[in-house]
Structures
1.
Amino acid sequence: MDQVFSGNKFEIAFNISLLLFALVVVISSVFNLIDTERNFLYAILGIIIGSGSITRLYQLNKNT
């Protein structure tokens, strides 16, 4: 039982760190002063990673 709880805590921490990383990627691509063509792709990538992390956190919260 304790091992399952520890794994669950790790999944939550991992998904929160992924969400923070995605937010940083989106924010940095939006406020980038040098206009490159990759900013839009980085923003989309950050949104996809963030939405996957939010979905997984919702699933973990729903199961508890």
2.
Amino acid sequence: MKEWLILALVLLFLCAAMIIAAVKALRCPTEGAEGACIVLPVSGHEEDIELRVRSLISRTRRLRGAAIILADFGADSETAEIARRLCREFGTVECLSPEELAERLKMMVK
């Protein structure tokens, strides 16, 4: 019985170590961000883009430095301008093209 308990504790410790390693591997390499990345695809005219981004920012503050990436998949000029303004206003919000997003994802996997 004692051996099974020790084995269970060792397995639990190993699982926790694997989870911690996986979280560290997925950290976002966005300047000023130390936590996870949230990718928000943006296309066409999005009436509520500012509300959605501000809502995400308020919900992710407890994550300490989570980055929000606005992936521009053909946003109209008004939506793109709002996205750029949000990027200037918040250090952890970034606007990327699909090509830049693909490059960033490659960096995250390394």
3.
Amino acid sequence: MLTFRYLYTFVNAAASLYTFYRLKCFTTAGAAISSILFFLYAPFGIMALSYNSLGIICLTLCLVTLLTARSCLKMQYAVCGVLYAFSVLCCPYLIILYFVYAASVLLRRYVRQAEKIALLNDNAATTKIFLYFSSGAAVIAALFVIFVFTKMTFGQFTKTLGPILDDPEHKSYTVFHHIKTYILAIFGSNKISGLYFIALIILVGAFIFYKGRKVPKSLYFLISCALTAIYLIFFLTGETYINFIIFPLCPLAAVCALLDSSLPVRRLFFYGWLPAAFYTFCLNMTSNQLFYAVSSASASALVISVIIIVLAAKNLVCEEKKEIKYAAAGVLCALFIIQTAGLACLRYSSVFWESSMSAQTQKLEVGTEKGIYVTPEKEQMYLEHLREIEEIENNPKVSKVLFISENTWLYLNCSKKSAAYSAWLEPEQEAMPERLLKYYELNPEKYPDAVFIERKYTPLTQWVCETFNLSPTQFPATGDVICRKNEVRQ
């Protein structure tokens, strides 16, 4: 597992360097800040190439490449399509973006007045570029289909699809419900979030109402930056979580795009910020984590947001008095320093499902987590689990094992085949037994010969024994249970 953490660090670092290299054509300072923030962040503080982190990385690289492609357009837009397809695999609702993209291309091609819209006159909105993009996405889609249907027949696929769509823990909701939960998650993100967004709405309303009057745009910019700094500070002083601090600069970028009508900012907003912001909505639709999910997904939007904010600052205050320029530079520097320092501190101190980094004092010397520092309590639990798993490992009559535990690493310490649809079963959910039964109905060859039940979930022991015709053995030291076929324990 330590090796995979190193792998995540390498991939994340490479992606961060790439974003800097490509975005510096807009602003070197902004590109440096955005790439540093992107490197420092790990979704939920977990250093793993999961669907969360891969979705963010792939979409970010796709948008950055799309915004900065200047030569070898065929190859670059095909690569954009490949990266986009990978992000769709991580969050299927992102497929909606493809149809929006297609609609914009059709609008430019068939509606005469559309070419007068500068953004639709962009290279990215041409039919040729769209086809290059689609070809890259099609390659990944084809490989995915080939992979699926080499593992199962079409009949098995349709049978499997039903239980997935009918999962009682993932009920179908209307679009309006998703919009409602999304808005409530954002407006309830911290103690002053409601006041912050109301203030921004009033600020935007004032800008639109007084647009033709002599109210400098720089004033709106300074006020919105100051408000965002306060909003950000409340994330660091209140209920602090590494995901949350990623979000605050994103709404500020939207305000800056409204204030600054220059083509680079508008292009960054429409072809970068909006798709990335839509990803936050898509992930919210697939998750029950509310603002935890929304803020995590906003990492892609954050990269674009920093560039928009820096460009807008330059454009809005370039002709202002020195005092205004100094004020803007001071507010912006303070904002980026708070953002970067806060994220760096949270990245250093945050440990998923643990209290703090300082509590991780014991280095594991064996097993799949060898080399990782943990708390003394976790070390004891880890070693006890390894000893218990040895009984399964050394039993020649066991070929498939089901692990009912919140510790997803257990199956990695056992050479027997895993008898589960996922290492993360969520045993505390009432739907878990039903899910397992449907899985075994579709895959009877996966029935377990033994089941490991962690102490926390031992109330499931009777159901397990009756369902799989097994007998339980409890370990007195831990309270964990292993259910096996009737035999004399040696």
